[in-house]
Prior knowledge:
By secondary structure, this protein is of the alpha+beta class. The protein folds into two domains: about 1-215, no CATH class; about 225-305, Sandwich (Immunoglobulin-like), CATH 2.60.40.10. It has four helices and eight strands. The protein has helices at about 10-30, 40-90, 115-130, 145-195, and strands at about 225-230, 235, 245-255, 260-265, 270-275, 280-290, 295, 300-305. Strands 3, 4, 6, 7 and 8 form a five-stranded antiparallel beta sheet that branches. The longest helix is centred in the N-terminal third of the chain and has 54 residues, at about 40-90. The protein is elongated, with a radius of gyration of 31 Å. The model has no long low-confidence stretch (mean pLDDT about 95).
Amino acid sequence: MASNELPSNQDKLFTLAEDMADGCKTHEAVINLKQNKEVDLRTDLGTATASAGLYDASRSNKIVLGTTQTVADSNAKSYLGSARKILAVRHGETWSEAWLQTGFPNYSTAVPPTVAERQALLFSLNTYFIANPAHENAPLTVTAAQGLLLGTALSAARSAVNDGATDSGQKKNTRDTAVTGLRKRMRGLITELNQLLGDEDPRWMAFGLNMPGASNLPDVPDLPVLTAGAPGHVIADWPDVARADHYRVYKKVAGVDPDFLFALSVNDSDATLPGLPGGVAVSIRVTATNDSGESQPSLEAQIVVL
C-alpha cells in the first residue's frame, strides 16, 4: 500500500505543498474540504518560503562577514609580525619585563594565537607607540595610527560576525517554526483527504500524493540519456521518478561484463560513471528505490566510451 510521508528535503516539501494547493484549488469544493483549504495551505507555504529565503540570505551574509573578518585579521597578523621584529631589536627576542609595556600577552613575544588577543594587542600597540613615537617605523607602517586603524577594523569585523550569527540563528528559528506549521497543515490535509477520498481515487494524484491503495514502489525510470565525458567517464541523465528517494545505476561493459553490474547509487536523477575502458561500448540502465523497495530497471542505453 502506498504511503504519503512528507519529504524531509525542504525544496521537495515546498514543491509538494504547491501541488497540494493546486489540488485544493481544483477539488476542494467538490470533495467538500473544511479544515485545510487552498487559502490556508498557500498562506502557510508563503510564510515558510519567505522565512526560508530570509534564512538563506542571512547564511550568505555570514559568509561575506566571515571573509571580511579573515581579511582584517590577516592584515592584523602582518602588522603584528612586523611590529614584533621592530620591537625585538629594542627589547630582545625573548620575553622580559621590557616587553610588558607593549601589551604582548602570555609572557611571549609571539604573535598571539587567537583573534581576540590579536585585536587587544593592536590597541595596546597603539597606546605604546603614542607613548614611544621614536619606536615607530613609518616605512614599514608600524605606527600608532596603523595599529588603531587595524584594531578598529578587526573589532568592527568581529562584531559584525557576531551580529550576523545572531541574526542567522533568529531567522533559522523563524524558518523552522514556519516549516513546522506548513508540515502540520499538509499532514492535516492528508488526514482530511483520507476521510473524503477512496484509497484508489485518482484525485489523490491531483494533490501530488500517492493513492493509498496503489503500490508504493517507485515508477520505472525512463531510458537514460548518455553523454561521453572526460576519457573513461560517461554521464547518465534521466527524468525524476515519482516516489523515488534514490537511484541505482547499473553498467555492462561489452566484452568484459557478462551481465549488468551495480555501479553506484545517487540521490539525484543524474550520475557520472568513472573508470570505464576507452573505446569500448558500455550499456547503462537505472532503477529507482525507496523504503518499499526497488523498481524494475529502465530500458538500457549504450554509448562508446572516450
